[in-house]
Amino acid sequence: MWRYTDGRGVTVTLPRRPDRVAVVDLLATSTLWAAGVRPVSAAMGEDPADDCLSAVGFDPRGVTRLDTVDDPEPDPALLLDADLVVDRTHGAGLQRLADCPTPAVGLTLKAPGQSLDALLAEAGALAAALGCPPVPEAARARYRAAKWRVREAALWRPTRSVGFAFARHGALTVVDPDRYPWLVTLRELGVRLAPPGRWPLAGKPPGVELLYVFDEGVDVPGAQLWTDRWHAFDHAVYADLFTAFADMLDGDPC
Fold first, then answer.
1. Whose CA is closest to 196, among 165, 169, 171, 222?
2. pLDDT digits over 169-195, tens only?
3. Which domain holds residue 90?
4. pLDDT value at residue 93
5. Closest CA to 93 of 102, 101, 105, 84
6. How confident is the model at residue 204 (pLDDT cuts 50, 70, 90)?
7. In the prediction, which pLDDT does 254 show?
8. What angle is formed at CA 26 by the lines to CA 21 and CA 28, rounded to 5 degrees?
9. For residue 66, what is the domain's CATH number?
10. Is 206 left (phi over 0), alpha (psi -120 to 50) or beta?
């Protein structure tokens, strides 16, 4: 008997542990691959070489693609061969699946207020339930050390305000920290985060000293770049990202 309670609080019970797992959301594919799950079919977004997939070492060989470049919705016919379907959830319902005859569980990803630690813990619990070994302790230790490095930098620069933003349509939009797990965790570590807002595309917004702008080819003077690697929810990846972030946080202003 296999039993698992998912991010919605729904308990799924099956006669045995599922062997053939389908993952219908790109972020869920990346996150579970990092946790050790090897699906038989998966959503891969516009490009299987996307940063959030390549950063965790995703290998599409032998994995049936569920979506297409033009249509992110999974092909229902391809789900019939799976024992279990994993979808993304924010705690109430599934994001991609309106109706699926195959048993499905929800993995909480980027729910409002969800921390990176909570996300990694839930992904690890699902991977363990599917029979995967735990993330190597070396990767976990590096991640813990990187968080401590961020905490030290935040103590050293307590007034330095940080914003993550998109530069699109002639405007600079600073994101809501509650919507991004790494920002929730950075705030927990003492980093001062800029509130969400929208400004003309003419440099840093008022009060934002360290600005990260999503890399889409738009030059914003004084800004650092962030990419979809920040969506690769993996201990080893975040050990590197947080260490580099801490170096920027306690460095000299741009």
1. 165
2. 889 999 999 999 999 999 999 999 999
3. 2-129
4. 87
5. 105
6. confident
7. 46
8. 55
9. 3.40.50.1980
10. beta
